[in-house]
Specification:
The complex is a heterodimer of chains A (222) and B (239). Chain A is mainly alpha-helical and 222 residues long. Chain A is built from eleven helices and no strands. The chains are: A mainly alpha (222), B mainly alpha (239).
Chain lengths: 222, 239
């Protein structure tokens, strides 16, 4: 347990000290949200209709742009090889690094979502579903992204390849995320089917994706 | 199976099978196209455009079938490390991408007269488009990773991850939005299509599968030859 905590803590400290932490992600998020009305026109009715989708897409892009650093620095300076040889199984290492990524990207963005929602003129009773859906869905984005990051290790221009590989996999998360965020306001029952499916996706990726990502990392060291 | 996994034995066996497979494909296509374009009745609503179906539907089926073959070969490659399975998965991908593109393009051509638009963001169309993107990602892996052994391992992982995801994507998109007609051939209470249309459709499906077999064998043979040339070149450089 201590080892896992150390792994997560190390990544958090690195993210914090190297400026790749929550601040940058939120800044990126803000820029995308700012560009949205510039591209689509400042019509408030239109903006409030598309706000959940726009915020989900901004979240997806923010995750995508930060995900390729997940293993890269450790791969380049050799730490990843030590982790591979170390006492903690590589699958658990992947889970720790993914959680650290989620803590520095997905979580701050989900918490910041209401503020950006207001910028896009979201209706007040849609704010709680939006936060919940981003909070519950974003771990799935990080875990699927871990596969992409592991697969494209050491590949030149890996970022483009990463998007081509990972974005198609994000389709279900995006669909259920947006439907959970916008299809609600349906009374007191907050746990709509979409939200439950989103939770299921996050849990399933928590179990399955580290296996695939660890297998991909191992194949770089054969 | 293990006996035929030897590349040399595969080359001689596939060389013997290939002419017969090509002949069978030609006959199947001749029969299927005759049935589809001449004997099958025109639809009372759609008129002659319904004949696009005989090109479109088997292409979509084959696209899914090829992805299954690719994922199966990738699983074999992951578990037993057969080089031939790598070859099979790698050479299936471009063929599958072509079938997927054919399904998309013919669907688009059929959609224009029927739905009045080339493209709609409907569940079936979107999930087939995503399948196309998965094929492209898989092909890109082989092209960007230089070391063939590493590329094989990584590509197998990508294919299997995609295979797990294809059904999830399909159902999620169906929840999202659908205009395409529901499944009408494989149903619990028997096909909902009259036999005058069903028979040509099935013949065309068999013809497409045979075409895939032929193309796959040819692609696998040339991939094996390409690897041999590479090995010879490396050996000469080292000598």
């Amino acid at each position: 347990m201590n080892q896992l905590r150390a792994l997560i803590g190390r990544d958090l400290v690195l993210a914090y000290r190297l400026g790749g932490g929550a601040g940058t992600a939120i800044g990126f998020f803000l820029v995308v949200v700012t560009l949205m009305p510039l591209g689509l026109g400042p019509d408030s009715a239109l903006l409030s209709r598309i706000a959940p989708g726009a915020i989900w897409i901004a979240l997806l892009l923010a995750v995508l742009l930060s995900i390729d650093r997940m293993f890269l620095a450790d791969y380049e300076d050799g730490s990843l090889e030590l982790m591979l040889l170390g006492p903690v199984s590589l699958e658990l290492v992947v889970i720790c690094k993914t959680l650290a990524h989620w803590l520095t990207t997905g979580l701050p963005l989900a918490l910041a979502a209401p503020a950006f929602g207001i910028l896009l003129n979201i209706s007040p009773d849609a704010i709680a579903p939006l936060v919940l859906s981003t909070l519950i869905g974003s771990p799935a984005l990080s875990f699927m992204g871990a596969i992409g990051a592991a697969v494209t290790l050491g590949v030149r221009r890996g970022g483009l390849l990463l998007s081509l590989l990972i974005l198609p996999l994000y389709v279900p998360v995006l669909i259920f995320g947006v439907s959970a965020a916008s299809g609600l306001g349906a009374g007191p029952d907050i746990a709509t089917p979409s939200l439950l499916v989103l939770a299921a996706l996050s849990l399933a990726t928590l179990v399955l994706c580290p296996l695939a990502a660890a297998a991909a990392i191992r194949s770089h060291y054969v | 199976m293990q006996r035929y996994a030897n590349p040399t034995r595969f080359m001689s066996l596939s060389g013997a099978v290939l002419p017969w497979a090509i002949g069978a494909t030609a006959i199947l296509f001749a029969t299927g196209l005759y049935l589809a374009l001449v004997t099958a009745p025109a639809d009372y609503q759609q008129g002659e455009t319904v004949r696009i179906m005989f090109i479109h539907v088997p292409a979509a089926w084959t696209a899914l079938f090829v992805y299954t073959v690719m994922a199966g070969a990738s699983a074999v490659a992951m578990i037993w490390r057969h080089p031939l399975a790598d070859v099979a998965a790698k050479s299936a991908a471009p063929i599958g991408a072509c079938f997927t593109f054919l399904a998309l393009a013919t669907g688009s051509l059929w959609g224009k007269p029927m739905w009045g638009t080339w493209w709609v963001w409907d569940a079936r169309l979107t999930s087939v488009l995503v399948l196309f993107l998965l094929y492209l990602g898989y092909i890109a892996i082989w092209q960007t990773i230089e070391d063939p052994h590493r590329a094989a391992r990584i590509a197998a992982i990508v294919a299997l991850v995609g295979f797990v995801n294809v059904p999830i994507i399909k159902f999620s998109v169906e929840w999202w939005n659908s205009l395409h007609q529901p499944a009408s051939v494989l149903r619990m209470d028997g096909p909902a299509i009259h036999s005058s249309i069903l028979v040509p459709l099935l013949v065309m499906a068999v013809a497409y599968s045979a075409l895939f077999l032929v193309l796959h064998l040819i692609a696998m043979r040339s991939e094996i030859l390409r690897r041999r040339v590479r090995t010879l070149q490396l050996a000469r450089l080292e000598a």
